[in-house]
Amino acid sequence: MASDDLHWFTMLAELERVGAAAERLHLTQPTLSRMLARLERQLGVRLFDRHGKRLALNDFGRVYYEHARRAQAELDAAARELADLANPAQGVVRLSFLHSFGARLVPELISGFRRGSARITFTLNQDAVESVTERVLDGTADLGLVSPRPGVPGLGWRTLQHQLLALAVPADHRLAARRQVRLAEAADADFITMHLGFGMRRILDDLCAAADFRPRITFESSDLVTVSGLVAAGLGVSILPLEEPPVRGPLPAPVLIPLTDPGASRAVGLIWSASAVPSEAVRRFREFVLARSQSAP
């Protein structure tokens, strides 16, 4: 399979629509359909089930897609290594991170690094901790910034900081005037939290289990800013980082009350594939981030 075939096939597999994939690839739909038909003839199997204009990967297609993704990641890695050899001062770092790190942590790291390595560029991706971890493991991201530490093998990890956690409540909540609070004191409240698969959701579930209650969840979101806004609007309570609360607009922010529960903090860390050989650009950025964490107060 040629590298061009890898590109269009993975695009089609991910979108599962010939029209949408053809538009992204700047091809006509008949051209892309012929390319798919040619590939299926070469392999001797159908890779998709057809449902009108929509395609769905079948068992053969899913196997082929996983191999195609890994092959594309290997070719991309080879291209980066060649670029590093040709010009070590240039390169690309593919950084994946949680949404909540996009307001402060990621800009600070990239800004500090590029003062001395301006010719190195970045591609950025934001997602849930499970997706960030998967991207690092399958080679579509070089590094990830996550919290908490993923419990899967094959990853390198370095803790960069510990962020204290707080109970976030509306300004008129009965606990709003407290200087600190135990999570169990809010056991009867409606909770607003992240979707399953996000780090803050896992932390909330663990803290509630340790406090011996099951939270009554009324709203779920993939964005901490939205969670913060819903709390401020009086729709429930949540758990948010105390030291790096989400950036919000002109509306009043929720009141953050430090939690006294054991383990009421989140470890923020850098992850990378333990088996991948990093490019020079990735190695330099990783060393910068690790050195910065050691010098932080």
Biggest beta sheet attributes: 7 strands, mixed
Q: Tell me the overall shape.
A: globular
Number of separate helices: 9
Note the run of SSEs as H and E: HHHEEHEHEHEEEHEHEEEH
Structural class: alpha/beta
Q: What is the mean pLDDT?
A: 89
Measured on Cα atoms, how large is the radius of gyration?
A: 23 Å
Roughly what fraction of the amino acids lie in strands? 15-25%
Q: How far is the N terminus from the C terminus?
A: 52 Å
| Count of extended strands | 11
Which spans have pLDDT < 50 for at least 5 consecutive residues?
Answer: none
Portion of residues within helices: 40-55%
* Oligomeric assembly: single chain
Description:
With 297 residues, the chain is α/β, with parallel strands linked by helices. It contains nine helices and eleven strands. The strands form three sheets. Strands 3, 4, 5, 6, 9, 10 and 11 form a seven-stranded mixed beta sheet that branches. It has a two-stranded antiparallel sheet with strand order 1-2. A two-stranded parallel ribbon has the order 7-8. It is globular, with a radius of gyration of 23 Å. 41% of the residues lie in helices and 23% in strands. Helix 1 crosses helix 2 and helix 2 crosses helix 3. Strand 7, helix 7 and strand 8 (216-221) form a beta-alpha-beta unit.
